[in-house]
Fold each of these.
Amino acid sequence: MCLAVPSKVIELKGEYAAEIEYLGNRRDVSITLVPDVKQGDWVLVHAGFALEIIDEQYAAESLKLWREMNDELAIT
Amino acid sequence: MNWQLLKSFRNPQIVKELSVILDNRIALVTGKLGRPPVLMEVCGTHTMAFSKTGIRSIVRDKIVLKSGPGCPVCVTAQTDIDMMIELAKCPGVILTTFGDMMRVPGSYSNLLEERAKGADVRVVYSPLDALKIAREFPNHEVVFLGIGFETTVPIIAMSIKEAVKQSLKNFSLFSVHKAAAPVISVLIKDQTLNIDGFILPGHVSVVIGESGFSFMAEETDIPAVIAGFDPVDLLQGLIMIIEMIVEEKKGVGNQYTRLVKPEGNQVAQQAIRNYFTEVTAEWRGIGSIPGSGLVLKEEYAGLDACRKFSVQAPPARKVKGCLCGEIIKGKATPFQCSLFDKACSPVTPVGPCMVSVEGTCSAYYNYDRGGNW
């Protein structure tokens, strides 16, 4: 029920809606819960609403963290 | 941002290497505790993700991974399901719902059966679709079944805002929405569960933030980690929670930083506060929990299906042998239910945990059968 998918914002359609794309599928969603969203952002979409903007820096950091853990394990 | 970066969270090579790290951490924690750690995921989407990715089966001899009350369809009380079915039977009502609810067994029938008998029950993708139906059919009463945790509630709140704006008089909400934090508060006090660590719901946390679970550090020594849903997220979440157990840290860790902020989505939280109020709610298998139900505020009573329609649910009937109530609490596994994979399967579900794709029984049936559990 809390299933939500990452989607790319293709085009803002006024103040309240945007066209998004996920795996080639496009649809309009409400952006009333993410007022700061910009074209080109990736958002989490749930039941016709963008729920949050995905933070690229944190995404990259999560993956970096794994690499550090992996290196540490190789040493020990 | 590019798709490749997000796809890395599903990269088989990273998953393989994380599994090695996880094994190392499991050895540490098992050495410390003298037994395998007992963890619980409290989110139906996690239940599904752990099973579907195969992670549940690769860790099954090393971690006791319990599934908790995280599937909103499953935790809905039988009387509420019976009420929904009664609403569908009301003349002139178009009942709109997310697809998960259609086959959930009521005491005497389900929504799919009622539709076959002539009731107008429609599956929608978004509550906004229900508003559209209300505009198209002004002579009908359109009822939306509001079900789900804090992830879904702001979306319903924004739809209520839209209904008010459009002065829709023929739309109403039957709300059985629930908050995740109060049930976790109940679980941490349950001595019989012996949980060493919790995996907290990632998408609920997107809305309520890390701060939504800050009560845990005050109420318990049991640590918790907010995790995402891709295989890399799940493994990192397990590694983080095990490290917290080993280091005897309490409080809430956050693996899902790309989406979960410390303060959450405040626009979404405000939307919930604007339209909903907390009440005591009844949970299947658990009973009533104060402050765990979210219903429309008094000023939106005109949009509340409970007040608009005077329907009475028939006396609820308990199905003999169904262990859904115990499974929801993490006190039994589907494999301990005598009906599982016999009388109860996704084709002929007896209890709600087998109906919802995120139900524990459904996830274990589809992905974890055949092992020696």
Note: The CA atoms of residues 42 and 249 of chain B lie 20 Å apart.
Amino acid sequence: MKNKALQGIRIMEFGSFIAGPAAGMMLAGFGAEILKVEHPVRFDGGRYFALGFGSKQPNPKFGDQFFDVSNLDKKSVVVDYSKPVGKEILLSLAATCDVLLENMTPGTLERNGLGYEDLKKVKPDIIYISSSSCGQDGPEKNFRGYAGHFAAKCGLGHITGYPGSPPSMFVGSVDFRSASNSAIAILMSLLYRQKTGKGQFVDLASQEAIGAQLGDVYLDYIINGREPQRMGNRRLGYCPNNAYKILGNDEWISISCYDNEEFAALCKAMGKEELISDPRFVDFDDRKKHEDQLDAIIGEWTAGQQKSAVWNTLIKAGVPSAPYYNGKDVSEDRHNLMRGSFISIDHPQTDRDYIVNTPWRFATETPAEIKRHAPYLGEHTRQYLRELGKSDQEIDCLVQEKVVLA
Amino acid sequence: MSQQALSGIKVVEYTNTVGGAYAGKLLATAGAQVIRVEEPDGSNRIRNLAPFAEDDRHIEKSIMHLYCNPEKTSVTLDLNKEEGQEILRKLLAGADIFIKEGLPEWYDSRGIGWEALHKLNPKLVVGSLTPYGEVGPYRGYKANPLNIQYISGPAALYPHGTGDMEKAPTMIGGSFEEYDTGTILLTGVLAALFYQRMTGVGQYMPVSAVEAQHETDHTNVQYPVTGFYHTRAAVRNKLMSSLPTPCKDGYIAPFLVQLHEFNGVAKLIGHEEWINEDWFKNTETRQANYQKITDAMWEYCSTRTMKEISDESQKLNASLGPNYTPQYVVDEDEQFAARHFFTEMEHPFAGKMKYPGSPFKMSETPFRYEKPAPILGSGNEEVYGALGLDVKALKNAGVI
């Protein structure tokens, strides 16, 4: 049996929806043990969500695909942390953990005696990461919203879409950026602790994690005073950089050229080698000046061509290009199928579920893998209470008193 | 000088994409020693990517270079020459991490492939980026950022709910999604490094940019289960009165999901009576009447600014957020300012600048932004000198 990169690492997670939980799940893929702690009544709202629009609301004990998407391979421990007995149980459990990850409303855990200072008393080297929308301090520390709000707040909405049209809205996937950055923060902190024995507190604001991925946009404004605008698919660094209509309803081929070499390949692919030395298009800056004309020429060439044929022609000629794929295309694509980029797993309610496979394709020592659907509510409470030394009778009492769900 | 999270960790980076360079940036600003290997003729793609400072096409002035390469040391090296390959091996012999891009055969044929490196330095972790991965029918296909977005599915979502169905789907703005490749690569590299520190064993860890997008997106898993997939038509948003809403100084981004948020909006826009009406309480009938709600929201927003609406709606839990511009975030936003998100940096060619900061804040080991993005090859003397190499001779031979 192969090893796991994070074997022996235990993370206690107080997570809600995506931003916190998806980080825990990413680390589960490396073999970390994720104890997902939920309140018996006010549990993770993601359990209620149906992923497919128009789908039936799931049984929250199990959740459906939406919940799976962020909670695979975790252990469910359900404890009422607002009761002193519950809090004590969690502190005892936390003392066995390396990391506490939370994205509850700022202040919630502190109010319940489970803040960083409280945890340090039972585990001085704990790594405690609080993920929030706008940060643990500042005038907007209590800002409530969804992933799309944070994207809009940083300016990402303003620059997504077409000039003359409104700014784009966003879907929940923006939350995965908070999650990936949280995973990095936890790993950096684990490495620091591995070296020094010291833990620390990490304050992650979704709007800053997103803002860091807008750094070049802010810098262009800071240095050049250029106010960022919506540009469709165009970008200052590439020309052409656009998508063009091909045969079929809402079918497109994207083409992108970084330099003269890639542009020459495109001209050859189109059978229009004369464009290479056309004064309108000779150099990058020339192409930028005449981008509308260039897009029109390319669009004329692609119009009416069949998707795989035109992509084939372009790829053979070495032109950076790819067709438009919607969710159906992605799930049927032969490259994704061959690579197992998505996998099918058992699910207690829906029978099968379909999930993203881990993207970390370790070749040798420590394969990353995702195996199991999200835990059902309270599935592992008993296991961890036994680990703390509680007898089954004691656990049954705690269940009766509604301190835990097991 | 206080310790940083990754002090003592040695990284060699050979990258031409934003994802690779950003992974290196997070390592460097967290304290790792990052040596960035670059082409001697200055042809590295990041250095030649517009926009430039003062729109001056100069290899020290690319905005992306200024953003992705602080705290790194730049050395030049011609990896097509045997002496260059030998020097890279020397650099990697003492390294913990090698961040690289491109297919194995390019490296294997130059004696710097995984097998050779692992023999040379068994603890080396190699993080390798390609557009489609090293296995599969699209292996080796050329793809720039736009193409990755198109084929991995996210482009299908955008622009979301703006009504531009006749126009092509778009990427998310800026280079936003390119950074995801870097964060996903880095997550794997750091996990591998943690294991290396425990066991002394390094690993090869390839990441495909397309799969990095799947991991930061997850919306594509729906189709095989529900037969449904999101598109930029944003049908769900429309029914939830959650389309872009114009206001006095820009746009509002509503995202109304739960009943209490709709109740908050009703109070906010002067229709508190709706809260007790059956059509509003029931999800189906409320969605059937989305236009009524949308019209009232438009009227309310038309005479108010983004900040006013956002602040008022927060009090009522009404989920109407502002669509701030990037320039507002830089110049005016109080929360970013209170959190000191922007620091300062001075660069020999680009001058003094306000500088965007960290994706998160570590209490004991904050990120550092003291050294600006390096001049090409400015680390040659120091790095190659330490290896006992004759820098002048190497320069004359065109190796560096």
Note: Chain A is about 35% helix and 15% strand.
